[in-house]
């Protein structure tokens, strides 16, 4: 449900000047508790993002940002054996919805190609059951490499505790009209794409 | 709201406050010092990770061309010169320079990532489903709804934060402020301008 880029049906942005990040004390606490768990090494950012992505879609859409954060945190605490769901529900005095179990992850694609700024690339048409940081709207689409980032842990593996090599991400520039032909405002859309998701054209 | 779960007796879902309390208490009981951490991290979130950090960066880039060059070449190293740090997993800060002909705007369609230690924690609307879904596909329309009606000749570049590289927008300095001191310039710079949904 989380892969929202380009989804239709959403309404006006609820924009206000100087909008705040938090609206209640529990939101600040939820944010701090997940940060604590990352700091303690209980889970990493990819595991955390993936846990949120595994939420029931109806819950995901209805929950606000910090309820999603709390659900991801609690799910991982249970999965890592830090607490049990029963204890959380007893302490909370009610049901504590958690995310669904994880599907298998994967390691890097091999061999991978090195790209240079200006290279034309295509995003592989991969569908995977586990975590992936390739937004669906670029799958199979072509763009131009703008720059290369330092190597990062490969999310498809890192979210699942699978061994993998760190790999660079490429800022790839797409034309909005290539992404959504005749159905987008004219713009250049830049996406940070992991090396494993890309292949060179020509 | 009741969540479907067939193995379990349906019971009332605990409130979010009760659920946060439960997690915090469970971690405290295990000696993980959650309540202390909440105090410390809440202070960081509310008092330290604020847009005034990024505003200082922008103001310095406006008055100091050598710093601007370093900032555009390696954002993470340049902000460190001002005593600003980023989490370890944010390995790269890319600073996107606006010009009168180019408007950069940042988003995160899959969650709500930002360079939060530099430009501040993201505002509510940035995390809303509507912004995440629409800004990549309907950029000009969305910006107009948010009060930024760009002339048609201005090119829009949207940056979707899909990896742990972070972005911030370097806004165009308003011409009437040329020659102002750095602290006065910093006071002009807003978080929304560094996200790219506003011009100064």
Describe this structure in words.
- The complex is a heterodimer of chains A (202) and B (200).
- Chain A is of the alpha+beta class.
- Chain A folds into two domains: 1-100, Orthogonal Bundle (Cyclin A, domain 1); 120-200, SH3 type barrels (Roll), CATH 2.30.30.
- Chain A is 30% helix and 17% strand.
- Chain A has seven helices and five strands.
- Chain A has helices at residues 25-39, 45-53, 57-62, 65-79, 85-92, 155-158, 176-179, and strands at residues 120-123, 142-152, 167-175, 188-194, 198-200.
- In chain A, strands 4-3-2-1-5 form a five-stranded antiparallel sheet.
- In chain A, α1 packs parallel to α4 (65-79) and α2 crosses α4 (65-79).
- The longest helix of chain A is centred in the first third of the chain and has 15 residues, at 25-39.
- Chain A starts with 24 loop residues before the first helix and ends with a strand.
- With 200 residues, chain B is α/β, with parallel strands linked by helices.
- Chain B folds into two domains: 16-47, no CATH class; 50-195, Nitrile hydratase alpha /Thiocyanate hydrolase gamma (Nitrile Hydratase, Chain A, Alpha-Beta Complex).
- Chain B contains eleven helices and four strands; from the N terminus they run αααααββααααββαα.
- A two-stranded parallel ribbon of chain B has the order 1-4. A two-stranded parallel ribbon of chain B has the order 2-3.
- The radius of gyration of chain B is 20 Å and the shape is globular.
- The mean pLDDT of chain B is 95.
- Chains A and B meet through α1, α2, α3, α4 and α5 of A and α1, α2, α7, α8 and α9 of B.
């Amino acid at each position: 449900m989380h892969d929202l880029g380009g989804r239709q049906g959403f309404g006006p942005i609820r924009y206000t000047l100087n909008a705040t990040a938090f609206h209640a004390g529990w939101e600040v606490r939820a944010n701090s508790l997940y940060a604590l768990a990352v700091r303690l090494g209980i889970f990493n950012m990819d595991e955390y993002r993936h846990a949120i992505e595994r939420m029931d879609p109806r819950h995901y859409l209805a929950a606000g940002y910090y309820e999603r954060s709390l659900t991801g945190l609690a799910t991982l605490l249970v999965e890592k054996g830090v607490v049990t769901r029963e204890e959380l529900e007893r302490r909370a005095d009610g049901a504590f919805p958690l995310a669904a179990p994880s599907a298998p992850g994967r390691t890097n694609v091999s061999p991978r190609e090195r790209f240079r700024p200006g290279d034309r690339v295509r995003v592989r048409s991969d569908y995977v059951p586990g975590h992936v940081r390739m937004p669906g709207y670029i799958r199979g689409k072509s763009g131009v490499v703008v720059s290369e980032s330092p190597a990062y842990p490969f999310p498809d593996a890192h979210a699942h505790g699978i061994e993998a090599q760190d790999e660079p991400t490429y800022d790839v520039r797409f034309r909005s009209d290539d992404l959504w032909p005749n159905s987008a405002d004219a713009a250049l859309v830049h996406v940070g794409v992991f090396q494993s998701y890309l292949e060179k054209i020509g | 709201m009741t969540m479907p779960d067939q193995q379990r007796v349906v019971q009332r879902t605990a409130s979010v406050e009760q659920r946060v309390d439960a997690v915090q208490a469970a971690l405290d009981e295990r000696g993980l010092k959650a309540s202390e951490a909440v105090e410390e991290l809440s202070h960081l979130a509310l008092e330290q990770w604020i847009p005034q950090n990024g505003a200082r960066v922008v103001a310095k880039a406006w008055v100091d061309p050598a710093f601007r060059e370093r900032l555009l070449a390696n954002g993470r190293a340049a902000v460190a010169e001002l005593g600003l740090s980023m989490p370890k997993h944010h390995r790269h800060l890319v600073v996107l320079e606006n010009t009168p002909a180019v408007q950069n705007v940042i988003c995160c369609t899959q969650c709500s990532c930002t360079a939060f230690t530099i430009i501040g924690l993201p505002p509510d609307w940035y995390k809303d489903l509507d912004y995440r879904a629409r800004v990549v596909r309907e950029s000009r329309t969305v910006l107009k709804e948010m009060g930024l009606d760009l002339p048609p000749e201005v090119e829009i570049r949207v940056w979707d934060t899909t990896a742990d590289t972070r972005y911030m927008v370097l806004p165009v300095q308003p011409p009437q402020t040329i020659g102002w001191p750095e602290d006065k310039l910093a006071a002009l710079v807003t978080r929304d301008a560094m996200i790219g949904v506003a011009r100064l």
